[in-house]
Design brief:
Blueprint lengths: L2 H5 L8 E3 L9 H5 L5 E3 L9 E4 L12 H6 L2 E6 L9 E3 L3 H12 L8 E6 L4 H15 L3 E4 L4 E3 L2 E3 L8 H13 L4 E5 L2 H5 L10 E4 L7 H4 L2 H13 L12 E5 L3 H7 L6 E4 L7 E9 L2 E8 L2 E7 L4 H16 L4 H10 L8 E3 L5 E5 L4 H14 L4 E5 L9 H12 L2 E4 L9 H9 L8 E2 L13 E4 L3 H11 L5 E5 L6 E4 L2 E4 L2 H13 L5 E2 H8 L2 E4 L5 E2 L2 E2 L10 E3 L12 H7 L3 E5 L3 H10 L4 E5 L2 H15 L3 E6 L4 H12 L5 E3 L9 H6 L8 E5 L7 H9 L3 E4 L7 H4 L2 H13 L6 E5 L3 H9 L3 E6 L6 E9 L2 E7 L5 E6 L6 H14 L4 H9 L9 E4 L5 E5 L5 H14 L5 E5 L9 H14 L4 E4 L4 H10 L7 E3 L2 H8 L8 E5 ...
Parallel strand pairs: 2-3, 3-4, 4-5, 6-10, 6-11, 7-10, 11-12, 12-13, 18-23, 19-20, 19-23, 20-22, 21-22, 29-30, 30-31, 31-32, 33-35, 33-36, 34-35, 36-37, 37-38, 38-39, 43-47, 44-45, 44-47, 45-46
Antiparallel strand pairs: 1-5, 7-8, 8-9, 14-15, 15-16, 17-18, 24-25, 26-28, 27-32, 39-40, 40-41, 42-43
Length: about 1000
């Protein structure tokens, strides 16, 4: 490009050409017509035929490198200072502004040809940009992004040295995007970029303001200067260009500076974040560690949304992104789908997946940023929050004590470490952080004294960031949350003048593997030895990382065991797992179709044949159990297995890491899958064992090899497969026959069938119950609306009052079994009490659901048999006090020929318990109705029908003092009734 064309973009008042030396011979116009082949602001990068712009930097001044630029081939100079040179020199008042103008001219003003969305603010820029990109991609636009993490377009990613690149680099990037067909560019606009004229000749269609909080005060000096800089983007830059008539702003009104900014803007504005005076806001919100959901209101319109973004601050980002999309004319459907499609932003509350605690890496490096991210995680953390953080060297020192105060005030444990210390001494930076810790109640730990876990809130110092991350994992338990803050997406650490490889995410994964990694990796010989299988084909992978049976969730390099099921046969999905990169497939030797598939795919995947893949799955789990340095507690019984399992786990977790059965994984497939989750940190496994037929418990116990066996009770369940209650007792007793030598049996002495087992087992017996003869017993049991109170008496004579936060006197026997397990595991009385009182009911198992309209629902929908039905009805009758007791019941399954009679007995029990109304769904509804009516309940108080019909009849008659029990077997899905009752009960008039 001709030099004269470039100079047209520079105001003449600021451009004075001077010509010296031999190169100055001739007319000025001839010199202006020099062909400029490139523009540079770094002398070492100058190419022959280039124009060099001398810019004053923070650590160096471009004027000092003019000789180098000329030596490298510069044919003209733009300077702020008078310079003597043998090439044309154009002196300007501000070389940064000149560089911006020259770059725009040289690359043909690319921002004029594309839609440009700029996002500015202290926090949330990167995430908001990514969310806007997701919405534009949903519409099918070709997008480009320029931001802190990188710049990218059309699937290509490039490193970005600054959040907003230098003006010349920025114009070059935009020109690349334009030439490749990009139509929309979303970019982060930093305050440095505004102040240093990097976006001076950029033409924005939309500008978004997220928030403003303390940061960069080493550069801006004070908050007012910082705000004035951000404000200039909206009041100056976006209104002084060819797009000023169509420019729009999006402003977060929940931020105080956003409110101030809104008063100064002359372009149309979309306001977000607050119901009053806002264009967009959200209602009916739900926040979890998995994401956010709610209803987004757009003026008079609305839609429900779900997002993987975690936390309230990300709700603000969602609203700001939706505001930009609205300003761009996108439909609500596109906005909704864009919100749902957003995955995550590297280093912004980025989860590090793995067993153990929930781990998040975040870029929060300011007081406001750190406070916001902790405020997000604190209410979502199931247990304790551990924060690892530091402060960067050679940056704003005022924020250090503020961040120290925030982290220690809001976390259970703060580990203060190094960030990027740069030229400063890391320990001096840490001292300034700790100056903000003024809470005298906090415990100051050391990495040595805290090794046995921390019992009280506190903090410690570990300057080595890698060691600090590992220490956080070593101190954590399942259910804890770890936040590693400050560096986010960065893949380096700057120490002194060295930039060293360091990625918080990589270090967190390494720590997870060290403390929560798999006990063993699987190889071909181990699988063959465990299963007695036949090697049909050896693939390329020598070791396998895990075992699974679900083709949808199997990971690359894992072993796939093809299990035949009631609805699907895993053998049919062998092509899918081969395509996904399975390392090994275990199949049934007699499945010809599967063997043909093996012959077709062959190659890199190992195939092992076995006579029975279900048995092979159990054999693999048994092999793992033998290799694991853990102890196992197995729990069986007709009722209370899951609740007892959760209570035992709650007690054991006061001291140990515990693996427990999840959901209904308690059968010949589920139990092995549970054992495959064993990790190096586990000390106990608490396994639930269910069954339908004789021999099933025996097989499960053979796999798990329990050290402790708990039998809760024996009742009329699974009679279809077991014939009688004596058959049920025999099946449950199989557990005691398959325990490890010198095992311990914890038996409910209040149940005669279980008590009889004590005489037959060779194991040591620890009896629990209300009887005086029980080793561990309960007395003075009192049932209240908030749970059950009882006195726990231990074999040593030690005793204390326990408050279970779950209704029903029958829960006490579960708690006694958990107390016995805790005592056997060496846990003292105070921790047993802590574990029991820290237990909360499992969803669908005697869970109390309070409503805004006053009535209470007892959700016991997980399953049902005659005994559990009777216990639940007794609890309803006890808790209702002066209110009405209403039961909504579904069928009980697997009762064989006795089904009608047992349902009739339940109806009679409802009537005798004094229930006010009875609603019944299912095949046996008329049997229940018959029993209730024959025992005196008026037929007008009994209704049979479908679940929707029951809801339609029940809701209009409910009052604030009513208690409603909802219960039925799993297949009845009675939880839908609970959902409808809760939804109606929480509606406001």
């Amino acid at each position: 490009m001709k030099l004269s064309r470039l100079l047209e973009n520079l105001p003449m008042s600021s451009c004075t050409p001077s010509i010296q030396g031999a190169a100055g011979r001739g007319t000025l116009s001839s010199l202006d017509d020099l062909e400029i082949t490139s523009i540079h602001f770094r002398a070492q990068e100058v190419q022959p035929g280039g124009l060099f712009v001398a810019v004053r930097g923070f650590s160096a001044d471009g004027h000092d490198f003019i000789d180098e630029a000329i030596k490298n081939g510069a044919v003209a100079l733009v300077t702020e200072k008078p310079v003597h040179a043998d090439i044309p020199v154009y002196q300007v008042t501000d070389s940064r502004q000149a560089l911006s103008a020259l770059g725009a001219a040289y690359y043909g003003d690319p921002s004029k040809d594309m839609v440009i969305v700029g996002v500015t603010g202290t926090n949330g820029k990167t995430t908001t940009v990514a969310m806007i990109e997701a919405m534009l991609l949903q519409k099918g636009f070709k997008t480009g992004v320029i931001g802190t993490v990188d710049y990218h377009y059309l699937g290509r990613h490039f490193p970005n040295p600054n959040t907003t690149p230098e003006s010349l680099t920025l114009q070059k990037i935009l020109a690349e995007m334009r030439d490749q067909g990009v139509t929309h560019v979303i970019m982060e606009v930093s305050s440095h970029a505004i102040s240093l004229s990097r976006v001076e000749h950029l033409y924005f269609d939309i500008c978004v303001f997220t928030n403003l909080s303390q940061d960069h005060l080493d550069f801006h000096k004070d908050m007012e200067t910082y705000f004035a800089c951000k404000k200039r983007l909206f009041t100056d830059l976006m209104v002084n260009g060819p797009k000023r008539e169509r420019a729009r702003a999006v402003i977060n009104l929940k931020d105080d500076y956003g409110k101030r900014l809104s008063e100064a803007i002359q372009v149309p504005v979309i306001y977000t974040g607050s119901v009053k005076n806002s264009t967009l806001w959200a209602e009916e919100l739900s926040f979890t560690l998995s994401g956010t959901s709610g209803t987004l209101i757009l003026d008079q319109d609305s839609f429900d949304f779900t997002s993987r973004a975690v936390g309230f601050h990300n709700l603000e980002n969602i609203l700001n992104a939706a505001g930009a999309a609205l300003a761009l004319g996108l439909s609500k459907e596109t906005i909704r789908d864009g919100i749902a499609s957003f995955q995550s932003v590297p280093g912004r509350l980025e989860p590090v997946m793995g067993p153990g605690p929930s781990v998040f890496v975040d870029y929060a490096h300011t007081p406001d940023g750190l406070e916001k991210v902790i405020d997000v995680l604190r209410p979502l953390a199931k247990k304790r929050l551990i924060t690892v953080f530091g402060c960067g060297g050679d940056r704003d020192r005022k924020k250090r004590p503020l961040m120290g105060a925030i982290a220690t005030a809001l976390s259970d444990l703060s580990i203060v470490t190094s960030d990027n210390p740069r030229s400063e001494d890391p320990e001096e930076i840490i001292k300034e952080i700790l100056a903000g810790v003024t809470d005298s109640a906090l415990v100051s730990y050391s990495s040595e004294t805290i090794r046995e876990r921390f019992a009280e809130r506190g903090y410690l110092v570990e300057p080595d960031r890698r060691a600090a991350i590992r220490l956080a994992h070593a101190l954590s338990k399942s259910g804890d949350t770890i936040l590693i803050a400050g560096k986010g997406h960065e893949t380096y650490q700057i120490i002194g003048n060295k930039t060293l490889p360091f990625d918080d995410r990589v270090e967190a994964k390494s720590a997870i593997e060290a403390y929560y990694g798999a006990i063993l990796s699987w190889d071909i010989q181990t699988i063959l030895s465990a299963t007695g299988g036949t090697l049909l084909h050896q693939g390329e992978i020598a070791r396998f990382s895990g075992i699974g049976i679900d083709s949808r969730t199997l990971l690359k390099g894992e072993v796939f065991v093809a299990i035949p099921g009631d609805r699907f046969d895993g053998h049919a999905f062998i092509p899918d797992v081969v395509e996904k990169g399975a390392g090994c497939v275990v199949l049934n030797l007699e499945n010809e179709a599967a063997r043909k598939e093996m012959n077709r795919t062959g190659g890199r995947v190992t195939f092992i044949g076995v006579p029975d893949t279900v048995k092979a799955l159990g054999d693999l789990a048994a092999h793992l159990r033998k290799r694991a340095a853990i102890k196992v507690i197995a729990i069986t019984g007709s009722n209370g297995k899951t609740t007892t399992k959760e209570m035992v786990s709650s007690v054991l977790r006061t001291r140990y890491e515990v693996l427990a059965t999840q959901g209904n994984f308690n059968n010949h497939v589920g139990l092995p899958l549970t054992l495959f989750n064993l990790r190096k940190n586990h000390r106990w496994a608490v396994l639930e064992m269910g069954m339908n037929h004789l021999g099933e418990i025996a097989r499960l116990a053979e796999i798990a090899s329990p050290n402790i066996g708990i039998v809760t009770n024996v009742g009329e369940a699974h009679l279809e497969g077991l014939g009688s209650i004596e058959g049920v007792a025999r099946a449950k007793g199989e557990l005691l026959e398959r325990m490890t030598p010198y095992g311990l049996a914890i038996l409910n002495m209040d149940d005669p069938h279980v008590r009889a087992m004590a005489k037959r087992t060779q194991a040591k017996v620890l009896g629990v119950g209300v009887q005086e003869s029980a080793d561990i017993r309960a007395r003075e049991i009192v049932e209240t609306p908030s749970g059950v109170l009882f006195t726990l008496v231990m074999p040593s004579g030690e005793e204390g009052r326990i408050h279970l936060k779950v209704p029903g006197k029958k829960m006490v026997s579960n708690a006694l079994a958990a107390a016995a397990a805790g005592a056997a595991a060496g846990i003292d009385f105070s921790k047993i009490k802590e574990g029991l009182e820290g237990f909360f009911p499992v969803s669908g198992r005697m869970t109390l659901v309070s409503t805004k309209k006053g009535f209470t629902v007892i959700d016991d929908t997980y399953n049902a048999n005659p005994n559990s039905m009777i216990h639940a009805i007794e609890t309803l009758a006890s808790l209702r006090k002066e209110g009405r007791g209403i039961a909504v019941l579904g069928d009980m399954f697997e009762l064989g020929d006795d089904g009608p009679l047992l349902h009739e007995k339940i109806g009679a029990f409802c009537a005798n318990a004094g229930l006010t109304k009875l609603f019944i769904a299912g095949k046996y509804a008329h049997a229940v109705k018959k029993g209730a009516a024959s025992s005196g309940m008026r037929e007008s108080e009994i209704m049979t029908g479908t679940k929707p019909e029951i809801i339609e009849r029940l809701i209009p008659i409910l009052s604030g003092t009513d208690w409603i029990l909802v219960k039925g077997s799993r297949a009845m899905k009675m939880e839908s009734v609970v959902g409808e009752l809760k939804k109606w009960g929480d509606q406001t008039a």
